[in-house]
Design goal:
There is one protein chain. This protein is an all-alpha fold and 423 residues long. 81% of the residues lie in helices and 0% in strands. The chain folds into 2 domains: 191 residues, no CATH class; 210 residues, no CATH class.
Length: 423
Amino acid sequence: MLRALRKVLLSPSLQGAMIFAMSGGAFALGNLLLAHALTVSAYGHFALMVAILIITSNMGPLGLDQLLLRSQRRLGGRYLAPIILSSALIALVGAWIASRLYGVIPAAAIAIACASLMFALLRTAACALRRHGVAIIAIFCDTAADWGLLCVGIAALGGWIIDEEQAALALAGFGSIAVIAAYIVTLGHERTMASEAAPIHLAEAFPLLGIIAAGAVLVQAERLLIPPLLSLEDLATFAVLTSVAIAPFRVLSAGIVASLTPQLRKIHDIDGQRKLLVHEIRMFAALAAISTIIVCLIAPPFADIFTQGRYVVGIGLCLAACVNGTVKILQAVPRAVATGIGTAADLHRVNLSMWLCVLGTVTGALACAHWGLTALILGAAIGSGIATLPSIMMVRKKLARPGTPVAGGDVGASTGLPSSAAP
């Protein structure tokens, strides 16, 4: 019994989930502090800008950050240059969308674009550190936006931040400091890599970009859909709901991707990969069930106390949030499998499947928005869940088929790349 408990507690997935849980708590608390300190309009606009930041910072590196996990190329100046350029351009596009389509003031939009560039570079550093086995620092780089949001919330509570523009500037400043610290650590580890001039396989980077972008859009889709379909006040309520109800599920889904991918790559046989996947799914399913119970019990009074009754989060909204979060966990499994041990064809299939999930989310939200915020959240979850089924079946067939090439043993065999590109 004690040995089994020790094995669970030492599980890399559980350790990663615990760190992600702390970052999820930071995200939730930062949001609640901002909801308490800012007006409904200012908080709604800032919540929208955070959604755009998350999408653009994930898309900015064009998949080259994820390619670091599957190659031996050193993260040097020649590799960073295109990442910086693409991240800056995509951040500016996000700023334009925030300003023109959602009415965010230009100064705040530019500030959030600067923050997006910083967090894109942090995600790239996280991928480089992860392949060196520096998992804890990598996770902190991945979740830097959550910790930055907590710092902004504390500043707002102290009265130093009173509107969305100042909040965006503070988040950009935090990102700049975090980038300097992260790259001092990262580049020290990268000196051990063999070459900075190894070829960049864009054919593999683009489906990885599609998967990352679709994952980010899926997580933030409701925030982008609520203002035009309902109102800015509903968006502010949803942002509070995200903090007290959806955040635990997003932490779990992020933990699956961050921890399961490198574990799968270390196992060179399908039976071992299947056993690992079953074990991890059971563990995360149990955590999801526990999270549902806790959310329904404490989220309504918690939101009421922190926002002084400004935002009402009822049981109906909490249950809808739990369904929504559970679907996000299901979507993380095929993404982790494809990124870790998938062939190039598998990456394309999961990429397509995730964009179908985006379409399902939009369709479900549009169909149910007439009945209010709770119905919109449920509709988005149901539409996205239905679209997830093909990718789940793909993973099941892949791990059930004997003789399937395994990326953990020979990347060249599974992706069509030369074996010299294998990590």
